[in-house]
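Weekly modeling sync, notes
Attendees: S.R. (lead), two postdocs, one rotation student

Agenda item 3: backlog of single-chain predictions. S.R. asked that every request posted to the team notebook include the full sequence so nobody has to chase files. The rotation student volunteered to paste the first one in as an example of the format we agreed on. Action items at the bottom.

Example entry:
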Amino acid sequence: MYVGRFVCVGKTGGKLWAGYRVSSRSFPNRHAVRINDNTVAIMPKDIKDLEKSPYISYNCVRIENGAAVIANGSHTDPIIEKISTGYPARDALALSLLAMDYERDTLDTPRIAAALSNGFAYLGIVTRDGINVSDFPLLENECFMVATYEKTVFSRLTVEASSAEDVAKKMFELTFEKAVCSAGVFQSDGGFEVGIYNGP
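Predicted structure, as returned to the notebook:
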């Protein structure tokens, strides 16, 4: 099954985590790049691909002030910035997704995002038909996902992770088609660590 990009939130060993995967039929020549300890970007391997679509390069992970956001587009930045200035994570997700709306590409691709803040996990999606944002007070070994296609309703998965790198690798290895690259965040003492995976 091809579900496009997807985000997940989970809890393993008492630690919250979130993961993101790029799955793509149109732009498979991309990779996840660790910009610093707090940011991961999705970038095309050939800069000329940006002339074909403005949506293929963006920060997919941002960590600030003890919160983490992971998403499929440029809405990553306003979400974490709102959380950092004091907005509740649910409100930051809803306001940013509503303001930026779905992507105006040929498929009306939804914007999706996950946030980890104050011990809670959140998922959000905005489509051509509406917006859905929810919090998940996760139990041990629970995991939920939302994707840009097919799985646009929050659904349960079975994934356990032990680190940010492990989250990224597990996201990549899920059986959905056309994996390109992935990223993960994992709760650590006082914050979150980031990890990337660009395939074997």
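Discussion: group reviewed the output briefly. Helices lie at 76-84, 89-100, 164-173.
Action items: rotation student to repeat for the remaining queue; S.R. to check formatting next week.
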